Amino acid sequence: MDYSDLMAPVTDGKVDISESSQKKERNVGSQLGKDDFLMLLVTQMKYQDPLDPTDNTEYVAQLAQFTELEYMQNMMDVTQHTSAFELVGKYVYVEHSEKGHSQNAEGVVDYVTMKNGEAYVTIDGAEYSYDDIVEVRNEMYVLQQKMPSVQKQDITYLHHDPQPVIITGVSLGEDDYQAYSMGIGVVNDKGETVTINSKYVTYEKGTVTIDRRAFANFDAGTYNIAFVFDDPNKTVSVEDVTLEIKGIKTNNPVAGTIDDAITDDKDTGDDKTEDTGSADNAGSTESGTTTV
User: Which residues pair with 228 in a beta bridge?
Assistant: First the structure.
């Protein structure tokens, strides 16, 4: 090894190890590495007082410290590389800066490569430095966050004062997990499902509004409002929204009828049927699908 590159100049009898004096470039603000310690040791040996030389035991102690430092750095490199390889198949978030521009990326790590002792991860064909990874998440957790969902809530409908049923916190999902339509049904305590006609359902900015006429002929009781989304996973939400209907049902023209809530022969040409299957069937018919 050529130690001349590691020598620091001596100015006025003192060793100058400032940033500007070092021949070997080092990033400002970085910690002292093994090359820095070796440079100090060689410089000390070269410029020691010949009349009062440094004791050999001190050199041995310094060499031992240097060896320990090198070992620790090697262990850190091995640990970093192991951690990088363990990211394969994990969902990560990357903050990458290039020429002053910050570029964020996320996705599943396809594979890891080593270049000049540095680890790089590949996400959707793009390569990023291991050091740019800022967050690692379980893929199932990410999937749950991106899939369509409905916020838990309790809603009351009064027959003597009918109002539209408003359901907030309805997410259609994100990215590849997004849904573009949904079916809505009302499920009783026996698991029987009545599909709500889509003409009574509107969706805007996370809020679903169901016309009051859709519930005019339901008996008083507690129900669940089921959602069936058309996302790739066919997400179903059954127990998140509880609907309590109170009072005595009426068949007045303003409120409409239960048949009108389920299907409309004049509008759709479908038979008047009541879906008594499971919640998985809620919204499966054309009349129960709301396009958003």
Answer: 183, 236
One-letter amino acid identity for 124? D
Token reading at 12: 């006025």
pLDDT 10s digits, 132-167: 888 888 777 777 888 999 999 999 999 999 999 999
Read off the pLDDT of residues 204-228 as tens digits, 9 standing for 90 and up: 999 999 999 999 999 999 999 999 9
**Would you state the torsion angle of the CA atoms of residues 268, 273, 277, 281, taken in this order, to the nearest 10 degrees?**
0
Of the candidates 256, 278, 280, 277, which has an alpha carbon nearest to the alpha carbon of residue 197? Answer: 256
| Strand, coil or helix: 167 | strand
State the Cα–Cα distance between residues 33 and 41, nearest whole angstrom.
13
Whole-number Å distance between alpha carbons of 129 and 118: 8
Check residues 128 and 54 and name the one with the higher pLDDT.
Answer: 128
Q: What is the band of 266 on the pLDDT scale with cuts at 50, 70, 90?
A: very low
Encode pLDDT of 94-110 as tens digits: 887 776 677 788 888 88
User: pLDDT category, 39, cuts 50, 70, 90?
Assistant: confident
CA–CA separation, 93 and 61 (whole Å) = 44
**Integer Cα distance of 247 and 221 in angstroms:** 9
Tokens standing for residue 268: 């759709």
Q: Which residues lie closer than 8 Å to 21 by C-beta, 6 or more apart?
A: 8, 9
Burial of 63-78, coded b for 16+ CB within 10 Å and e otherwise, reads eeeeeebeeeeeeeee
Residue type, 40: L
Please, what's the b/e burial string for 177-210 (b: 16 or more CB within 10 A of its CB; e: otherwise)? bbbebbbbbbbeeeebbbbbbbbbbebeeeebeb
